[in-house]
Design brief:
Length: 198
C-alpha cells in the first residue's frame, strides 16, 4: 500500500501537452504547486481508456486552478502516445490532450506503483500526490471499470481543505461544506448538525 508513503520517483520518456517528445520527464520535477494526479491506464488505442483520458483533459483546467498537475502513464512507447494524440477523437484517438503521457515500456513504473497486471498492462490506478510527494489517495480499478474524474477533483478538494484547515472531511464532503474537527467534540458537533444528510 502506497498511501501515506512517498510516491516512487521516475524519469522516463514522455509526450508533453504541447506534443514535444522528451527523454527525461521526471515525476518530482513535474509535481504542481499543490500536488499531482498520476494515473495509469492499460494501453493506447483501446476502448475505456480514451474516455478517461479525454475526461481528464476536459477537466485539466480545474486541476490546474487547484495547483494540481495531471500525468498519465501506460506501458506504451512515447511514439504510440504521440500517434494516439494525433488521431482524431472521431477516429478512435484522444486528440491533443492537455497533459503529459509517460511511456513505461520497461513496466517498472507500473510495478513500483503496484498496478502491473499479469506482467502485461497497468490496471486503472489513480494516485493523488501531495506537494511534498506523499501519496494521499489511491484507487485501482479492474480493466473494464472506468474512473470518475469528478471524484478525483473532489478528493483534490478534500486534500487541499485538510492541508489548509487541519480539519478532516466526512463522508460525501464537497468543496464549500463544513469540515470536522478531529476530536470527540468535533465529531459530536458535526453529527448533531449533519447526521440526516449522510
Amino acid at each position: 500500500m502506497l498511501v501515506t508513503k512517498k510516491a516512487p520517483d521516475f524519469t522516463a520518456n514522455a509526450v508533453l501537452a504541447d506534443g514535444q517528445i522528451v527523454e527525461d520527464f521526471n515525476l518530482y520535477e513535474n509535481i504542481g504547486e499543490n500536488g499531482s494526479v498520476l494515473f495509469f491506464y492499460p494501453l493506447d488505442f483501446t476502448f475505456v481508456c480514451p474516455s478517461e483520458i479525454i475526461a481528464f483533459s476536459k477537466r485539466v483546467d480545474e486541476f490546474k486552478e487547484r495547483g494540481i498537475n495531471v500525468i498519465g502513464v501506460s506501458v506504451d512507447s512515447q511514439f504510440s502516445h504521440f500517434a494516439w494524440r494525433e488521431t482524431a477523437v472521431e477516429n478512435g484517438g484522444i486528440g491533443r490532450v492537455k497533459y503529459p503521457l509517460v511511456a513505461d515500456l520497461s513496466k517498472q513504473i507500473s510495478k513500483d506503483y503496484d498496478v502491473l497486471f499479469d506482467e502485461s498492462v497497468a490496471l486503472r490506478g489513480s494516485f493523488l500526490i501531495d506537494k511534498d510527494g506523499t501519496i494521499r489517495h489511491a484507487v485501482i480499478n479492474d480493466l473494464p471499470l472506468g474512473r470518475n474524474i469528478d471524484e478525483m477533483i473532489r478528493m483534490v478538494d478534500t486534500m487541499l481543505f485538510t492541508n489548509e484547515h487541519g480539519e478532516v472531511c466526512p463522508a460525501g464532503w464537497n468543496k464549500g461544506d463544513e469540515g470536522m474537527k478531529p476530536d470527540t467534540n468535533g465529531v459530536a458537533d458535526y453529527l448533531a448538525k449533519n447526521e440526516n444528510n449522510l
